[in-house]
Structures are given as C-alpha cells and as structure tokens.
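Quiz preparation item.
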C-alpha cells in the first residue's frame, strides 16, 4: 500500500506519495508555517488534498526535533517553531483521518532510508551524518536505529571540539559565517564559498581548509566512539562527491599531523 510522506523542515515541508518499493509518485513543497497550530492545520489540508488525488494506506512523517516515536510527541530541539515541542502531529492526524501514522526525527529517517535503498544497504552498523544549517546524525546498530534516552542520541552537533560547538563552526552555517568574516566578498550560501575555494581564492582557501579539518575531527571522533562499518554523509555539500571525500580525508590527515 502506498504511503503519504511528509518531510518537515524548518524552512520547507516536502511531501508526496511513495510506493512500498520506494518509488516517489508525487513530490511537492510548501513553506513551513512558523507556529505549531498553523503547521498542524497545513498538514491536515495537505492530507485532504492528496486524498483527492491518490490512494494511500498510511502517513509517514519525518521532522526536525527530538521525537517520541510511540506517542509522536515532539520533545524538544525544535527552535524553528518555538511552540512545536509538546505537540503530536501523529496523534492529531491519526485521529482525524483514521490512518496509521508514523513519525521520527528527520536524520533518523535519513539513516533508515540509507539502509533501505541507499549507501548503507546490507550494512549492520553505520552512522548517518547530515551537514546543513546544523549537524545532525542517525545511529544504526545491528540494523536498528539507536535513539537513546529521550530520543536525543545522534545530536552530536552540540559536542565541543577545541572549545567550539561543532555544528556552530563545522556546518554550512559555520562555513558561511567564517568565509564572510575573512573575505572581502559577502557570500550568500555554501555553494558560493566552494566556488571561490575551487578558484583558489586566497582569502577563502584557508577558511575552507580549517572547516574541513574541524569537520574531519568530529567525524573521526565518532568513528572512534562507535566503530561503525560505514559512515554516510548527506547534505548539499556531499554533492561534491569524490572531491568532497578526498577533502575530508585531507582534513583528517591535517588533524593527525596537528
């Protein structure tokens, strides 16, 4: 049976209908409301609209924040919507539409998806690291998501390295901030920073190299802590592919030498 899937981010909600084999039949995007009541109402309306176009037997929700997967309650770490914590989109939608509803943290969903159809197929122990505005993670041990107490496992963006909060400096937000502090130009996003880096902009190159060193240090620490078989890295920067992988390895070598 097909499923209606929502991916709730701080900026946008991506949604569509997905088959049991993972084929996406429909994919659309709307802006994320900034209040929980408006967000829930938006979800209600989207479910109603999609029911007029598709047949589906359940609803799956991926969302930012800490999530109690049983009750569907948002427990915290959801600053993008100040009153989001304490709500349960799962309970509300299940009651209104009479459909089974599942919900989990967005990076946990990324980790599960990588094991199902992605780069971690057939791998029993792996980490998924999402590099974006912050740095989030999903931990899979023996092919099961490890959520920890109060569902806060994998929130390693908050760990400190050399006295720095990792995600404040090793995320794309951190890279953009550092580049704008150093460079004569004001960059609008990470793509612009990497374009300057690839062109060997003398002001930007050391900033990006330091960023890779800090990013690689954090990833190395996670590898030592969890001993995974594989680390899967997501986020827009991973689109650099093999180049990005080599840059991470170089950053790790600089860490060891230092």
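Solution:
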């Amino acid at each position: 049976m097909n499923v209606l899937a929502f991916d709730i981010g701080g900026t946008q909600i991506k949604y569509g209908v997905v088959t049991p084999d993972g084929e996406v039949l429909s994919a659309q995007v709307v802006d994320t409301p900034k209040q929980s009541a408006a967000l829930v109402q938006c979800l209600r309306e989207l479910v109603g609209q999609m029911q007029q176009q598709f047949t589906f037997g359940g609803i799956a929700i991926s969302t930012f924040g800490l999530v109690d997967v049983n009750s569907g309650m948002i427990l915290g770490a959801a600053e993008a919507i100040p009153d989001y914590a304490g709500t349960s989109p799962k309970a509300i939608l299940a009651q209104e539409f009479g459909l089974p509803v599942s919900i989990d943290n967005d990076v946990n969903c990324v980790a599960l998806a990588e094991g199902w159809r992605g780069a971690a197929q057939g791998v029993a122990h792996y980490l998924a690291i999402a590099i974006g505005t912050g740095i989030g993670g999903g931990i899979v041990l023996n092919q099961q998501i490890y959520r920890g107490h109060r569902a806060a496992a994998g929130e390693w963006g908050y760990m400190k390295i050399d006295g720095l909060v990792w995600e404040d400096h090793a995320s794309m937000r951190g890279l953009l901030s550092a580049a704008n502090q150093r460079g004569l130009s004001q960059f609008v996003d990470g793509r612009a920073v990497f374009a300057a880096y690839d062109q060997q902009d003398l002001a930007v190159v050391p900033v990006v190299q330091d960023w890779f060193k800090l990013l690689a240090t954090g990833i190395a620490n996670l590898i030592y802590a969890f001993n995974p078989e594989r680390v899967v890295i997501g986020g827009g920067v991973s689109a650099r592919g093999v180049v990005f992988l080599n840059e991470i390895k170089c950053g790790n070598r600089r860490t060891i030498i230092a």
